[in-house]
Amino acid sequence: MPPIVQVQVTRAPGDCAVVALSMYLGRPYEDVFAIAVSVTKNTAFHKTGLYYSHIRRIAKKFATPLYTYRTPAVRFMDLETACGLLGVMNRTDQHVVFIKAGLVFDFDGTVWELDTYLKHHNYAVMCFLTSVQEEDQ
Fold first, then answer.
1. I need a surface site. Which of 24, 45, 58, 75 has the fewest CB within 10 A?
2. Do 16 and 32 contact (CB within 8 A), yes or no?
3. pTM of whole model > 0.85?
4. 3-state secondary structure of 81
5. How far is CA 136 from CA 8, 67, 94, in A?
6. Which residues contact 49 (CB under 8 A, 6 or more apart)?
């Protein structure tokens, strides 16, 4: 993934996955948004969010297939060195953020240390999506 992170910010209430994907792929928000519309066949997806299957299909359109690690497997991963998308959840919210080298790049433009971010928002990690190529290395 890109050595430099171009921090993106939200443009709609449910577009966290588009923001996270644009940072992860190093692509402009507008490009990722356009592909998301074509994949979901829904111009209003950004109001409710995307499913993980949509996220994988969007990334694949950018020639970056993603593999999803669910909760049990994520517990054994070193997220302090990982690069990918992190799906998190608390009692009222589900969210997707970009994570690189233990830093969380949130959709409001803030950058957090992973543990601080999870504790502050009372989030539990639900899944981790990363490039199939990165896993092969």
1. 75
2. no
3. yes
4. coil
5. 28, 11, 29
6. 14, 15, 16, 17, 94, 96
- Rounded CA separation 61/107 (Å): 22
Query: Which two three-digit tokens encode residue 45?
Result: 């997806």
Compute the chain's Rg from CA coordinates.
Answer: 14
For residue 45, give the 3-state DSSP assignment: helix
- Outline where 1-137 has alpha helix (H): 16-25, 29-40, 52-61, 71-74, 114-121, 132-136
Each residue's pLDDT tens digit, 106-137: 999 999 999 999 999 999 999 999 998 755 54
> What does the pLDDT look like over 22-63, one tens digit per residue?
999 999 999 999 999 999 888 788 778 899 999 999 999 999
